[in-house]
Amino acid sequence: MKSINSVGENTIVSAFESVKSRAAEFWKYLRTTDKESIVSDIIDTWLLWKTIVKVYVRAVKTLSKRGPRIILDFKKYPYLLYAVDLRSFFRAVRGRKGVYRKSILKTLETMAGVCVEYFVEALSNPDRVIYFQGSIAGISELCRAMGLIPYSDLFMPILSVLLNPHSMEKYIDFAESSGIPADSCSVIKSAQGIFFKGQEFKAAAIIGNNMCEGQVNASLLYRKMKDIPLFTLAAPNNFKSDRAEEWFGKEIMRLVEWLEENTPGRMDWDRLREIFEERNRAVEAEMELWEMMRLQPAPLASEAIWLSHLASANLMSGAKEATEMFRTLVECAKENMEKGVGANPNERYRAVIWNPPMAVYWHVYRYLELKWGVSVIHESLAYNEVGFVDSSSKESMLRDVGKLLMNAPMAIIARGPAAYYLDPLFSIIKNWGVNLVLVSDHVGCKSAAAMAGMLRERARQEGIPVVRVPIDIMDTRFVSKDEVFNKLDQFMETVMKAEPLRKKVPAV
Amino acid sequence: MSSAYYGGCDVGSTTTKAVILNSQGIIARSIVPSKTDPEDSANAALEGAIQKVNGLARIQDLVCLVGTGYGRTEVPFADKNISELSCHAMGAFLCDPKIKSIVDIGGQDIKAISLNEDGSLCDFAMNDKCAAGTGRFFEAMSRVFGMELEEFSALSLEAKRSVPITSQCSVFAESEVLSLIAKKVPPSEIALGIQESVAQRCYTLLRRVGLREKVAITGGCAKNAGLVAALTKLIKLDIVQLSIDPQLMGAFGAAIFAQRR
Amino acid sequence: MKMLPQEAILDGVLNNIENSLVKEAMDAGRIPIGYTCSLVPEVLLSVGKLFPLRLRAPGITGTQLADVYLPPIVCSYCRSLVEFGMDGHYDFLGGWVFNFSCQHMNRCSDVVKHAVKPPFVHVIDAIHLCTENTISWMVDELKILSDKLSSHFNVEINEDSLSTAIVKHNEFVSLMQEIGDFRKLDHPPITGTEFQKLMIASLSAPKDLLVKTVEALRDDLKKRDGVKDYRARLMILGGILDDPGYIETIEGVGCLVVADHFCTGSVPGLNRIPEGPQGPLERIARHSMAKSCPGMMDKIDTRLNTVLSTIKEHRVDGVIIEQLKFCDAMNYYGVVMREYLREAGIHVLLLDREYRLTGEGQLRTRVQAFIESMGK
After folding, report:
1. Whether the Cβ atoms of residue A341 and residue A100 lie closer than 8 Å to each other
2. B210 at the A interface (CB within 8 A)?
3. pLDDT in tens, C20-38
4. Residue B16 Cα, gap to closest chain C Cα (Å)
5. Spans in chain C with pLDDT lower than 70
6. Which of B130, C169, C229, C256 is buried most deeply by CB count within 10 Å?
7. Does the CB of C368 have a partner CB in chain B at under 8 Å?
8. Buried residues in C171-195 as b, exposed as e (16+ CB within 10 A)
């Protein structure tokens, strides 16, 4: 048995060895790197740490509003603890440089800051929280205009796995052992596991919806389990039609009336107009960004496109911060455009990610960028065809709330005919010069899996290589990170016949 | 000694068990490997038990015989057949009336049973479409390690930490184990990981039927001390030590039903 | 029990989708329209020379062709339909009418359009809530369908022809209900297997060509001795179950299935279209939307009450909830329903199954244990 002294000695020795090896690495870096790159790296590192400090300062200020109750919050909602360590979140920028790095930092900073404020707001005002199943595009604006706080049951699951890929495993297990079928989508199971454990945020009402089968089913459970008012919104399957939009607009009005009867919310139509006008300003900037993404090489990529949209649509639609974020992204893109450089200095392939993003291994896009020169140009949860909202009248706003809801992220995957899913993909391929499609084959998303054959045939006809990656976007136990990365490596080597840019990508 | 003998025969996929009892209790038992024909298996097991009883010459001499297990309808001269779920419930209840949850890990399936206060079946859940986590699975795993089952079980008890086995399927789990061995992961840690993966399956089934103490494990795999330890740790409840061989629980329960008829 | 004289006819209808009665109708110039969901109103497909056929895949052994498009985690019913479609089994159909029952069926319709390419395909976009708004939407949907059917098949679908179809539908349903009511007796003269054969046969052939057989069956049942020797009275609750072999396996352990509540069963299959002041299309829409379906998002209390009252009327000892593996709708509905029924003191067994009957031994074990757990 080793003595304490020898254990201590070993620890000191290993720490010393580690410092020594890092110092050697750093010295090698200084000797082999040109001055300009060193300066740029110093600026990048400074920007990273400045952003992290800024986020923590904002978070502490926000959390201090809860006072000592925050300790009880962490005890009652243990998944919030994953947000304490944001290092892996911000390390997404590792290897990304210059303006591109700045754009991703802006996205991450905005998202992190808004999330903390969101949760504190929801925790502090449970009588105004409206639980909504799935993406809250459309509902978010409506609730805000009514003085209510929209909260998606999928927030915490998705945010948690972005921070820690193992965070939802125990909730998934709990949901399954409570009787939820194992083949259900794990995003839904995560949300249900949180509910079954009684760790969901308190709410004044629940709005169920039929965005996907999992949510239809979850609403059955919530109806049984929870003694709070539940309203069910169900949209037509063929939602891209004037008839569907007009009909669903009436359902939204019914929802407004119900919320006024059952919650403290009161609709302020002027406020709704303001929110939508702000949203339109953000969308204008986003559209400009998407337009610039047609350039080759793309001035920005990856998280600056998909994560920025996910954050804005779900966390801050109609908020000035969303507009500011997109305007910053546009400025970053313009800067690269003027310099004639791309986000990815080694852009060889332009990819679109179709199906839900690989939340549990979201650093895979960075991996593809750094190892294979793949720039992620667009993504199915970000892409939508709704555009601007018509805020000219009450009816037009209601209709557009419905339209936003029906066209929410995932809508084309989970509902509507296959054309809703396939046509936009091939339109993006054509209009954005995409030459590679990456499909995250999320187990539990049967709707997407059932379109794999049709997608494959069409891609073959059009000569577009497609790689399908089996994954559980919330659970690492189904397919490991190594398996996912190996699969992509094999695809790039054997199908794309690509040479890697480097042997090893520094881990996040 | 009473000359009324009652028999229970549990025709399983891997082994066939027979128990003969009278008013004093169990007087003979037999476990034989199952043959292709369940009737042959039942004959062999019953003959094996009958030979040990002085007052019995043939199967027909039993006052009542109940068949159970997958081959229960093929037990010769059986007066009745009863599902193995009910038989395991009855057997375990008689060993200890406080038992409320049972997990039966057989050769090719796993069952979880919850009992009512009177020992009757309350609810059950079965995993009989996949051999992962069953006797077959453990046989395959111990083959990979080049050990007998008892050795494998003892090995898992030596580990301080486990290496998770993520494959759901026993075929792929075997590949995964081989890869881990090739990477020089300590065998005891792998063995513990295997035990924990099966324990997790058992736990999921137990939760489905409502986990309440006391808890018992029946079936051949109950003799796997490593599995018992892993399950005990997971469910945070003690597992009852049964007074008769857990592998005989189905046949014992069937014999009790025969007696009660 | 002695076999019913009509059983041979029913078996003939069940075992072939293009059976003798379908051929007889087609020879007379009539057009079969296949449909996939109980929310698709048969009545609308029964006008003029059209007749409805519930899409089934009897005798299917595998889904190798369908698996090219639909992965194993998609429900086996959908895969079976695509398999039969791609294999030419449904080439005799004039068209397919789907309902947006669930995402599996939605994608099934996509693949059928893509790979089978029938001459006529329509998907009714029924919304899974039953409110006045959704009913009005459904009326519009049915109008769109009837216009398409009219123009494609050159049939006159109007208020008069629909009203006539409704009357005929209700007459047939009343006849079937008479037979269904026998199952409420202490000793029903018809087993669950036989009744299921009758139900499925009625969905698999033109009703007007079957009606005499059904009337004769009803008359024979009035004289038949009832089933005396059974251990328990069971109800089956679930989704798409169109293989009587499943019920036969269940009854093989000594119980009797006396009630059912699944897509192809008596509830909701044998509900009459009520009279009313509304036009026929609206009456049909209301009738469809009121059907108890696991995919519906509301009125769970109504559905539960229907189940409870069926249990009471048929003096059911226990309920078996069967669900197709990977069926998202039933998987949750089954779990929720089980909890509700248990709270009401009803014995419940939840079973997974594939579309085609497999694992009979495993099924028997579970059902037998279930009956034993009831003390029967």
Report:
1. no
2. no
3. 999 999 999 999 999 999 9
4. 17
5. none
6. C256
7. yes
8. ebbebbeebbebbeeeebbbbbbbb
DSSP C115: I
Q: Which residue out of C125, C327, C351 would a mutagenesis test of the A interface target, given it has the greatest number of A Cβ atoms within 10 Å?
A: C125
Rounded-to-10 torsion of CA C321, C322, C324, C327: -10
The residues, any chain, with a CB within 8 Å of residue A240's CB and separated by 6 or more, are A385, A407, A416, A420
Interchain pair B123, C366: CB under 8 A: no
Give the whole-angstrom CA distance, residue C369 versus residue C359. Answer: 16
Whether residue B133 is found in the same domain as residue B252: no
Quick check: helix, strand or coil at residue B175?
A: helix
Distance (Å, whole) CA C287 – CA C284: 5
What 3-state class would DSSP assign to C74? coil
Amino acid at C77: Y
Contacts of C73 (CB under 8 A, 6+ apart): A183, A443, A446, A449, C326
Separation in Å, CA of B68 to nearest CA in chain C: 10
B132 and B223 together in one domain: yes
Has the ipTM of the complex gone over 0.90? Answer: yes
Q: Which two tokens stand for residue C99?
A: 């309902």
Counted domains in chain B: 2
Residues in chain B predicted with pLDDT less than 70, given as ranges, are 1-2, 129, 131, 167-168
For chain C, positions 230-249, list CB contacts with chain B under 8 A: none
Q: Say if CB A191 and CB A152 are below 8 A apart.
A: no
pTM summary value: 0.89
Q: Quick check: A221 and C332 CB within 8 A?
A: yes
C369 touches B at CB < 8 Å: yes
Residues A161, C176: Cα–Cα separation, whole Å: 55
Q: Are residues B78 and B192 in the same domain?
A: no
Rounded Cα gap, residues A435 and C62, in angstroms? 37
For residue range A5-19, what is the model confidence (pLDDT) as tens digits? 555 666 777 788 888
Domain containing residue B156: 98-241
Cα–Cα–Cα angle for A160, A164, A169, nearest 5°? Answer: 75
Mean pLDDT of chain A: 91
Q: Write the CATH number of the domain with boundaries C7-155.
A: 3.40.50.11890
pLDDT at position A225 over 70: no
Q: How far apart are CA A435 and CA A496, in angstroms?
A: 10
Nearest in space to C51 (alpha carbons), one of C172, C214, C184: C172
- Spatial CA neighbour of B136 closest among B128, B188, B234, C360: B128
Q: Assign residue B22 the CATH number of its domain.
A: 3.30.420.40
Number of residues written out for chain C? 376
In C, which residues are within 8 Å of A415 by CB distance? 103, 106
Cβ-based neighbour number of residue A314 at 10 Å: 26
Predicted local confidence at residue A203, as pLDDT: 92
- Give the distance from residue A369's alpha carbon to the nearest chain B alpha carbon, in angstroms: 29
Query: Does domain C161-373 sit in CATH 3.40.50.11900?
Result: yes
CA C72 to centroid of chain Cα atoms:
23
- Angle, in degrees to the nearest 10, between helices B225-235 and B187-209: 50
Residues B81 and B190 in one domain: no
Per-domain residue ranges of chain C: 7-155, 161-373
Q: Rounded distance, CA A258 to CA A130, Å?
A: 12
Chains within contact range of chain C (3+ C-beta pairs < 8 Å) = A, B
- So what's the pLDDT on residue C266? 84
Give the H or E element holding residue C343.
Answer: helix C328-343
Instruction: Flag whether residue B130 sits within 8 Å of chain C, measured between CB atoms.
Output: no
Query: Which residues of B are less than 8 Å from A178 in CB distance?
Result: 207
d(CA A192, CA A171): 8
The rounded Cα A230 to chain-centroid distance in angstroms is: 27
